[in-house]
Amino acid sequence: SWFFLATWICRMEQEGRARMGHLLVLSEMDDAFRNSLWRTVTEELGFEFIEEEELESSGQGVDSPGQSQEIIEDCVCASSKDADDQDIHQTVDNLTTSFWSSVGSDDADIVESLVYKLNGPVSIVDRVALTVHRASYQPGAPIYPPEYIQFGVGVPDNLTVSPKMKVTRTDETQVFNLKAEGLSMAGPYLVVFFHGALQKQYEDNRFYLAIEKITAFGERCNTPQKLWRLKESSMGNSRDGFDLAKYLSG
Q: CA 144 to CA 110: how far, in whole Å?
């Protein structure tokens, strides 16, 4: 049957036994076809992949980056990491093969975060771009997106926080337009919060998040006039339960 054929093919690939004499040469198989076979087998065994979605051009604060400048200066820290080579720095290295991964969790109701230092003494954040990583080396090439994303900008005792925004289940880059949502967010640090995990990893049956890239767009403020205007603007809405000072000292 189709299921047993798919099982045999996947087993041969996993064990590295593909040979030219086989009916199908796995090393020459199309990636999409191979992933489809993997999904067929794992789903028949009871494993679930999330249903991926098409990225809309607008809505939910998603828009194109526009003409704003990139304003992330450095990486500060992550709430967790699954391995040393899957840390926050992998989200700004512009490599499609690297990514940040959270630690695994038995519970889907998790909150993880990444902290970045912004350019200048203060930067205005207009948009933040997110790219979820596709684990093409894993069975079925799953993606590991959060359910919601949220942004905090400011300093430890005054962190302006956006509402939670729905994340599209895709590995295409999606941009969350804070300025278009009427949010005035400025400060020296950006915190990206991830709420909820959706995809389990086949190997250990635990929930993970995997983020390939984070890019913040906005304007660096290094003149007295701009800094004074920011001081006069509303920057309240401090987030209870989040201690940025602890992040920075840790």
A: 13
State the DSSP H helix or E strand holding residue 5, giving kind and residue range, or none if neither.
helix 2-14
Whether residue 119 contacts residue 205, with contact meaning beta carbons closer than 8 Å, is answered with no
What is the separation of C-alpha 61 from the centre of its chain, rounded to a whole number of angstroms? 16
pLDDT class for 135, splitting at 50, 70, 90? very high
- Reading the block at residue 92, the tokens are 């700004």
Q: 3-class DSSP state for residue 214?
A: strand
3-state secondary structure 26-88: HHHCCHHHHHHHHHHHHHHCCCCCCCCCCCCCCCCCECCCCCCEECEEEEEEECCCCCCCCCH
Q: Round to whole Å and give the CA distance between 19 and 228.
A: 69
pTM for the whole thing?
Answer: 0.78
Q: What is the mean pLDDT of the chain?
A: 79
CA atoms of 169 and 183, how far apart (whole Å):
24
Could you read off the pLDDT of 153-212 as tens digits, one per residue?
998 678 999 999 999 999 999 999 998 888 879 999 999 999 999 999 988 999 999 999
Q: Is 160 exposed, middle or buried (0-12, 13-18, 19+ CB in 10 A)?
A: buried
- Beta carbons of 192 and 151 less than 8 angstroms apart: yes
Euclidean distance between the first and the last CA atom of the chain, given in angstroms as a whole number: 55
Q: How confident is the model at residue 29 (pLDDT cuts 50, 70, 90)?
A: low
